[in-house]
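Design review, sub-item: ligand-bound model
Attendees: FS, YL, KQ
YL presented the inputs for the zinc ion complex:
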Amino acid sequence: MVLSSVGGMKMIKETRTYQCTRCGSTNIVKNGRTRYGSQKYHCKDCKAYRVLQPKVRYTQEQKELILKVYQERASLRSLRRLFGVSIPTVLRWIQKK
Ligand SMILES: [Zn+2]
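KQ shared the predicted structure:
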């Protein structure tokens, strides 16, 4: 995701982390693809072979920025357009506040 300049705000970078869905370890290696094209991995800690499910994470700072923009004037749709953040994700953050 590339975010062009938004009124001088900081760039939001997408961080993809890969974790073993079984044991939570990040000590995993890619292990080919399924016939449907999903990336597979092998976990070196629990020896599992599974399909990789990338997760997008936001830092606390990024969350706060997005929530601040939301409180000021932005609609959820414009947040999605500006930050590439999904609407359910933002709603979850708002409910937690
Ligand atoms: Zn594992």
